[in-house]
Recover the amino acids of this structure.
């Protein structure tokens, strides 16, 4: 029963203690503090548990470019839609289903006859290819290191010839540099994503901490993990210390999952590409290396999306600013009006990790 | 339907315009998208030429979009309550029940939450596909009859259609239920007032999470079961124990949709204490794995009730004293603030509890 919290990391009394500690630290710091998280799952947990309504008033948590679905660029969606329209079975994660391309999402294509299948894992897409040997099965692969490593694993395991990957995988660290350098952002500390750090290890952030002289704390996703992460960040900010700390040691190690990293870098190489609405980011898109060209949908097919004209509302969408942490969802005129989960203008309103979807569902600001 | 306090109002309008060529699965998911379709496509035409919805005693019209309809009959002190529901479910036999039990319980429960706890009779309209095994159909019908006996009612008329092979995926069962009640016994969705207590009759999310797990092939140790059951007898116990101001069975869209509808139709805000909402531990864990909230998925044997504050403990005791209501709980209250919205105290901070949007889609991470 929910009446007796049985989950160790969901104890409201422990949360109250941590919040008391945050209040003490904020009183010592004696000026407003902004910290940024870089993970949609952090935003999801913060909103779902109503954590912002517990925090000291001058402690602001901003959202960074931590939702891989949200930063998937429209032309990447157009490629997937085009492949589905041309007769391939396009498989993808549920979050991508309704992300708008220039004129159509995969969901739109599916409603009018294209073959789009939602999968939980890359391996399911491979199973689908095995079950349909006479069809081309394309896995529209999205996500950060946590999903790039499994995509790499299936490619290294000799998938069937009718299977290919359309990679829209992203790599976070270069995007953090871009955000840290934006003149509009003034961030006192970063809460780094525990999931991605399980793969990469926390040592990955050392160069960032040195370069930008800003503390980074790797945090988990339960409410107490997040509050602990904030407490550690405020400690460092209070002591004016550009430190790197792992506040998620039950999952994250210094060097990460070396087997997963090896698979990932064996299959993928980083390249420069646009993150939707933010910027061209150097080395932040993952594409298949030449050795895996036979499984690269971009090389196997002559993809020529007939993109048409975008919805004029697209020009008003502030997804990019929101993902860069320079605007909140309710700063966008479309939020909850023309743009909603059934009729998203931007990807931020689609994914369960998307800040606009999260704020519309749970309420964002602590105004309750 | 008034949508003025919902931030999604214009969104829904745009959805209707954009989707007007084809029906999508989101139209069947039970929340705002479906209501706007029903409103714009059907209600406006079926009620063409009518004046404003009648507030006459004993009358609940189509425009109220309640669980069923009530029309005065005879001497004018009684009403006939009717409701109809078509049932499709994949798979047709699932942990804890089957489509036959669902078809009877769904209609009996829709009548019950209107205050009509003694269903006079049911109709059964069956559509099956050529090639469907007779033995499978036989077990569905047997299940319907057993559930009718449990609910104290019977099927008194019906119809059968057979479609060519390939035209249908599994059986479709429509049931319509009829009951006669006194005017003063009718309970609508719209009666919640500030101060009323909110109760649920048991653990939430069991049916939806059990079926999603089954469909996605997650076993979770085989402990997840649908709660599908007729609850008219349970509702009768509650009605006898105190003043119930509004009542609804939280089927498609889950308790979140039901609570938002009660808030909207009653013109009140609802404040819920998440720690008090009963959720089975395995259901909670499976929901976490699937990325789907137990508050957002269907229940088929539960009731959400708004009760005058003074009667709340009596109604709770009546529910808990019934075998189908042992886990019942008082979970919150209505207020004059946050009109049309549901606010959830998570035990940490506070946030909105919103309706799910469209079909539940498994997430990436």
């Amino acid at each position: 029963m929910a009446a007796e919290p049985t989950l160790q990391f969901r104890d409201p009394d422990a949360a109250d203690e941590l919040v008391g500690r945050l209040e003490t630290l904020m009183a010592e710091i004696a000026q407003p503090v902004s910290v940024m998280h870089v993970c949609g799952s952090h935003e999801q947990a913060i909103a779902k548990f109503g954590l912002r309504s517990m925090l000291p008033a001058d402690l602001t948590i901003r959202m960074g470019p931590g939702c891989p679905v949200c930063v998937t660029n429209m032309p990447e969606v157009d490629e997937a839609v085009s492949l589905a329209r041309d007769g391939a079975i396009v498989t993808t994660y549920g979050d991508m289903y309704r992300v708008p391309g220039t004129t159509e999402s995969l969901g739109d294509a599916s409603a009018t006859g294209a073959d789009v299948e939602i999968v939980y894992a890359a391996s399911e897409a491979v199973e689908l290819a095995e079950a349909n040997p006479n069809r081309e099965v394309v896995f529209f692969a999205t996500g950060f290191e946590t999903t790039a490593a499994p995509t790499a694993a299936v490619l290294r395991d000799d998938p069937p010839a009718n299977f290919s990957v359309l990679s829209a995988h992203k790599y976070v660290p270069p995007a953090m540099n871009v955000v840290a350098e934006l003149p509009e952002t003034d961030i006192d500390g970063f809460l780094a994503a525990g999931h991605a750090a399980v793969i990469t290890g926390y040592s990955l952030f050392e160069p960032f901490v040195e370069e930008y002289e800003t503390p980074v704390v790797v945090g988990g996703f339960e409410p107490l993990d997040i509050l602990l992460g904030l407490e550690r960040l405020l400690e460092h900010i209070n002591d004016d210390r550009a430190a790197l700390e792992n506040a998620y040691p039950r999952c994250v190690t210094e060097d990460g999952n070396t087997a997963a990293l090896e698979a990932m870098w064996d299959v993928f190489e980083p390249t420069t590409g646009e993150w939707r609405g933010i910027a061209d980011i150097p080395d932040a898109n993952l594409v298949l290396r030449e050795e895996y060209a036979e499984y690269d949908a971009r090389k196997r097919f002559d993809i020529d999306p007939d993109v048409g004209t975008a919805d004029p509302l697209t020009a008003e969408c502030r997804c990019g600013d929101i993902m860069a942490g320079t605007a909140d969802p309710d700063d966008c005129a479309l939020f909850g009006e023309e743009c909603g989960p059934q009729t998203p203008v931007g990807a931020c309103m689609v994914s369960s990790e998307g800040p606009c979807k999260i704020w519309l569902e749970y309420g964002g600001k602590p105004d309750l | 339907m008034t949508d003025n306090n919902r931030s999604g109002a214009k969104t829904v309008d745009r959805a209707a315009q954009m989707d007007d060529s084809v029906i999508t699965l989101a139209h069947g998911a039970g929340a705002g998208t479906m209501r706007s379709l029903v409103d714009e496509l059907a209600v406006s035409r079926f009620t063409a030429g009518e004046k404003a919805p009648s507030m006459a005693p004993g009358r609940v019209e189509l425009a109220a979009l309640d669980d069923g309809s009530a029309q005065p009959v005879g001497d004018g002190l009684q009403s006939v309550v009717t409701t109809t529901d078509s049932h499709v479910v994949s798979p047709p036999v699932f942990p804890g029940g089957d489509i036959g039990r669902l078809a009877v319980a769904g209609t009996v429960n829709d009548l019950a939450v209107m205050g009509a706890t003694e269903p006079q009779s049911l109709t059964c309209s069956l559509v099956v596909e050529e090639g469907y095994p007779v033995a499978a159909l036989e077990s569905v019908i047997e299940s319907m009859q057993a559930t009718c006996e449990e609910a104290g009612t019977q099927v008194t008329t019906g119809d059968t259609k057979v479609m060519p092979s390939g035209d249908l995926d599994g059986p479709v069962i429509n049931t319509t239920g009829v009951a006669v009640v006194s005017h003063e016994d009718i309970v609508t969705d719209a009666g919640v007032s500030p101060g009323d207590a909110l109760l649920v009759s048991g653990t939430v999310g069991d049916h939806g999470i059990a079926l999603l797990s089954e469909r996605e092939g997650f076993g979770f140790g085989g402990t997840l079961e649908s709660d599908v059951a007729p609850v008219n007898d349970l509702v009768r116990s509650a009605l006898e124990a105190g003043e119930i101001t509004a009542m609804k069975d939280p089927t498609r869209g889950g308790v979140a949709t039901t609570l938002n509808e009660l808030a909207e139709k009653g013109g009140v805000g609802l404040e819920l204490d998440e720690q008090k909402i009963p959720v089975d531990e395995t259901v909670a864990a499976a929901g976490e794995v699937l990325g789907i909230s137990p508050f957002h998925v269907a229940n088929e044997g539960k009731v959400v009730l708004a009760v005058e504050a003074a009667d709340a403990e009596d109604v709770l005791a009546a529910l808990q004293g019934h075998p189908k209501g042992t886990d019942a709980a008082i979970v919150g209250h209505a207020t004059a603030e946050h009109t049309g919205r549901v606010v959830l105290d998570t035990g940490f901070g506070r946030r909105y509890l919103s309706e799910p949007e469209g079909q539940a889609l498994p997430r990436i991470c």
User: Anything to note?
Assistant: The radius of gyration of chain B is 20 Å.
